[in-house]
Amino acid sequence: MEIVCLDMEGVLVPEIWIAFSEATGIPELRKTTRDEPDYDKLMKYRIGILKEHNLGLREIQDTIATIDPFPGAKEFLDELRSLTQVIILSDTFTQFASPLMKKLDWPTLFCNTLEVADSGEITGYRMRCEKSKLTTVKALQSIGYETIAAGDSFNDLGMIQAGKAGFLFRSTEQIKKDYPQYPAFEEYNDLLKAIKKELS
Length: 200
Prior knowledge:
Layout: E1 2-6, H1 16-24, H2 39-52, H3 57-64, H4 73-83, E2 85-93, H5 94-103, E3 108-116, E4 122-126, H6 132-142, E5 146-151, H7 157-162, E6 165-169, H8 173-178, E7 184-185, H9 188-198
Parallel strand pairs: 1-2, 1-5, 2-3, 5-6, 6-7
Antiparallel strand pairs: 3-4
């Protein structure tokens, strides 16, 4: 039995922090897991910038409300879910993801949660578990699933490497160069074909 694990941002929807960077005009917020492999370092950096500019959860949610999934993402996900079980594994937060999940017809999502003060200030975050994507894939394997994974960033490599098959999707040139053993795709149809080949 197979289960497909997909990253969310960069694969199904645009990067939330990049969209927020563009909305606020703060270029430092463009940094993502494609640029910084250490997620804790990245989030502390982001929270520091938000504090410096007196920005909180509401402002980010206002930006998220304007974001739509990538063209073709919902159709890709719908077809994939008709073939096999799919879980979206993301380092995003429940407070960010809900409107986007609604636009994708509520697929299963495992993610993290923000710590937010009554004022709306983001004060910290709680990871669901350490190395959440890899840990989740290993847990699925422990209950009898073979995993197939696709993602675009450094934090997806663990789940890509650990499974029956793994793919890069709309990744960076550097990651594709450093991990040539993983097929890299730019279009949903090509990724879907590759996953279908792996489904027994």
